[in-house]
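Exercise 3.2. Students should predict the tertiary structure of the chain below and write it as structure tokens, then compare their answer with the key that follows.

Predict this chain's 3D structure.
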Amino acid sequence: MTPKKIEKVLSRLSNGKITVAEALDILRTLPYDDMKFAKIDHHRELRKGIPEAIYSPGKTEKQIIGIAGRVLERGDEAVFTRVKPVTFAKMRNRFGPRVKYYPEARIATVGVASRKPLGNVLVVTAGTSDIPVAEEAAVTCELLGCKVRRLFDVGVAGMHRLTSNLKEFDAADVIVVLAGMEGALPSVVAGLTSRPVIAVPTSVGYGANFGGMAALLGMLSSCSSGIGVVNIDNGFGAGALAAVIVKNKYQV
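Answer key:
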């Protein structure tokens, strides 16, 4: 994105040759930032309402810090997922309070501004062991401007724990349900509510769970309607999808 291109768009907007909406459409298509080892999408927020997200595993600390620095140089925002505490410590040492960390969710944010909360997302887990992935989903929703309520450890091994909280379903715009083991909870929740359900299989479980494959296949095979399924342990993907649903509902 060059100053000359922005100058031209702003000049046309100022002269009344294009509308604000048309200017935004043009800005959506401007180039990404090529760092050779990474191509940073600075305009994802304009297109999707979601800032650039960087999956940290597999990247070196030097690459992560380099991306964070470029994002801050541009006055932009980025969310880093699955960040190790030691990596965050180095980011914080380099960039100070502009970098924030959510340890349970393993998310680091760079330059992310607070948004006015809207809508309601309910994040539900079958067990306590699902909470790390649930927090990734919940924090993602919160960062993207959604109000979030958490309902943990209400799996099918004790249905009374779930049914005593049914009033929580009615207050939600969308429900994110996480489960490992056999992955039954999303089917139960979807059978009890008219709200859209985002199912997240987790890798929690004994051998035949196959690292979340049993839960994933169970959720994909659900006989309850109104369920969408994301990948194993993909809390970020579930949170982002929930936020998109909420933002579209409220036309933000």
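Discussion points: The chain has three domains: 1-31, 33-110, 118-249. Residues 235-249 form the longest helix (15 residues).
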